[in-house]
Design a protein that fits this description.
About 40% of the residues are buried. It contains 11 helices and 14 strands. The longest helix has 19 residues. The protein is globular and about 55 Å long. The termini are far apart. β6 and β7 form a beta hairpin. The chain has 2 domains: about 50 residues, 2-Layer Sandwich (Uridine Diphospho-n-acetylenolpyruvylglucosamine Reductase, domain 2), CATH 3.30.43; about 210 residues, Uridine Diphospho-n-acetylenolpyruvylglucosamine Reductase, domain 3, CATH 3.30.465. The chain has about 260 residues and is of the alpha+beta class. The strands form 4 sheets. A 5-stranded antiparallel beta sheet has the order 4-5-10-6-7. A 4-stranded antiparallel beta sheet has the order 11-12-13-14, sandwiched between helices. Strands 1-3-2 form a 3-stranded parallel beta sheet, with helices on one face.
Length: about 260
């Protein structure tokens, strides 16, 4: 690990000001990605700005059919939240199967979506539930937030404050996990809500994406059988040591049917 300066601001404004004064600053949420990368000397920020001291971006709130989750809320807190388990049980189940207990008790919602690992679970939750990301500067629809492989719509120095999830009429999440990391080889969130049907896929491609053909089929009947005969092209899917693109294409169909069944 290279030498760096450590900061622990008490507010979003302080954090943003610190970032602006650094030569090569890096925000740290739970540290589940940043710390291992720094230990391997794959990153060498001049300053690490620890966001764990900012109370205003932690916790869970419920109002007017919307569940708000602060950026620094741990995965374990989302999984155990009575409010989330009552209103969006699929989100609680998703959070409860991220990584292992250590990761769930240190990793955060904001850190996960800012990193945008192609095999992370939360991107499917945000896109599949039609969430909105609120930063210290603006609001961004989940459909516009995840842009590419490890890339998001966040601008330089922009900070996530919270994510708001509209409560769906029904939702389910199913994933085929890597047995070692518990990352999603393929994960699918399917939901039915006020703005229609959403099917979001993570793990299969370079970035989370919506399965439009599946959404159209489920609009005529939100049940697993509606997806019979529908497949996702393998051309642009990930192909690596964990699974071929063809196998991932097959898994998308399997996980989508399971997600819809779980929603029922």
């Amino acid at each position: 690990m290279y030498e760096f300066s450590y900061h622990r601001p008490a507010s979003l404004q302080d954090a943003a000001e610190m970032f602006g004064q650094c030569d090569d600053g890096q925000y740290m949420a739970g540290g589940q990605t940043l710390i291992p990368v720094m230990k391997q000397r794959l990153a060498m920020p001049s300053d690490v700005i620890d966001l764990s001291g900012i109370d205003g971006i932690k916790g869970i709130s419920v109002s007017d059919g919307v569940v708000g989750v602060g950026a620094m809320t741990r995965h374990a807190e989302v999984a155990a939240s009575p409010e989330i388990r009552q209103r969006i049980p699929a989100l609680a189940e998703l959070a409860g199967h991220i990584g292992d207990p250590h990761v769930r008790n240190r990793g955060t919602l904001g850190g996960s979506i800012a990193n945008n690992d192609p095999s992370a679970d939360y991107p499917a939750a945000l896109v599949g539930l039609g969430a909105t990301v609120f930063t210290d500067r603006r609001r961004i629809a989940a459909d516009d937030f995840f842009t590419d492989f490890f890339e998001t719509a966040l601008e330089e120095g922009e900070l996530i404050a919270r994510v708001e999830f509209p409560v769906p009429e029904a939702a389910g999440y199913a994933k085929f996990p890597n047995p070692a990391s518990r990352y999603a080889v393929v994960g699918v969130m399917a939901s039915r809500g006020a703005d229609g049907i959403r099917v979001a896929v993570t793990g299969a491609g370079p970035c989370v994406f919506r399965a439009a053909e599946m959404e159209g089929a489920l609009a005529n009947g939100f049940r697993p059988e509606a997806l019979d005969g529908i497949s996702v092209p393998a051309d642009d899917l990930n192909d690596d040591m964990h699974a071929s693109s063809e196998y991932r294409a097959h898994l998308v169909g399997v996980m989508a049917r399971r997600a819809v069944a779980m929603a029922g």
